[in-house]
Design a protein that fits this description.
It is a single chain. By secondary structure, the protein is mostly helical. The chain has 13 helices and no strands. α2 runs antiparallel to α3 and α10 runs antiparallel to α11. The longest helix has 15 residues. The chain is elongated, with a radius of gyration of 19 Å. The relative contact order is 0.07. The N terminus is likely disordered.
Length: 258
């Protein structure tokens, strides 16, 4: 059993979920090769992370506390505890655990990626960018398109769509089928007013992955910008039919969203 090979279980996990009814979704952390499990603390980390992914926060907390009681220098215990504390809204505690994780395992790309997501959520964009770049410093990191995509999404949130596009293009050059990077490029192109390019990425996404409310809303706005009201109406009908309660539905008739 690999140490924390469980990170692969989380699949497409980006930022912490804001809804406790659904499984908690820690920052996307791919599984690189790790050392073999070295003791009981690692077992508790695995249990804590598994319960965290299922949204069972009390049991996740208990297991991660046990892990840290057994091994206060377990970097992955601090990493997942940081994710849990962020989800609970305890930002100072979350940051302390992320800091300790990074200090204990400075070469761990997963940790820098998770810490970068936390900092981006705190709108500390330049610090987040540094963490994502540190995640990429490891030449043996097996999934560099993940922190590249996170860096691109964070740059977009900071209001820098050009830098976002640069990161996302690098991500797609490494993994052309990575859905989050395709979606990110669609948004980055829209932000820059490149509506035909945005349409291309939207069609690429919707042709390969299940439609989501945010992607349908982006498609509606893009087609409106391009003057194709028929296509916009078709996307709108899909949004209303499949996701009638989505927040994006509320925006359909807002004058600020042509």
């Amino acid at each position: 059993m690999k140490r924390l090979g469980l990170a692969a279980w989380f699949g497409f996990l980006v930022f912490l979920s804001g809804c406790q009814r659904n499984p908690v979704k820690p920052a996307e952390t791919p599984a690189d090769n790790r050392t073999e499990t070295s003791g009981p603390a690692d077992i508790y980390v695995q249990l804590g992370a598994a319960y965290l992914s299922k949204g069972n926060l009390p049991v996740a907390l208990q297991n991660l506390q046990k892990a840290l009681a057994l091994d206060a220098k377990n970097s992955q215990a601090h990493n997942f505890m940081g994710m849990l504390q962020e989800h609970l809204g305890n930002s100072p505690q979350a940051e302390e655990h992320f800091r300790q994780a990074a200090a204990l395992s400075p070469g761990d790309s997963d940790i820098h990626n998770a810490y970068g997501n936390f900092l981006c959520n705190q709108q500390r964009f330049e610090e987040a960018d540094r963490e994502f770049r540190q995640a990429l410093d490891n030449p043996l990191f097996s999934n560099p398109w993940m922190p590249l995509t996170n860096a691109g999404q964070c740059a977009r949130r900071s209001g820098d769509p050009v830098r976002a596009e640069g990161y996302l293009r690098r991500a797609l050059s490494l993994n052309p089928s990575y859905s989050r990077a395709v979606a990110g490029m669609a948004n980055a192109q829209f932000d820059q007013g490149h509506y035909p390019a945005a349409r291309g990425y939207i069609q690429r996404y919707l042709g390969a992955y299940p439609a989501t409310p945010d992607m349908l809303w982006l498609a509606i706005r893009t087609e409106r910008k391009l003057g194709d009201l028929k296509s916009a109406a078709q996307y709108q009908q899909t949004l209303l039919t499949r996701f009638p309660d989505a927040p994006e539905v509320q925006s359909l008739n807002e004058p600020s969203h042509p």
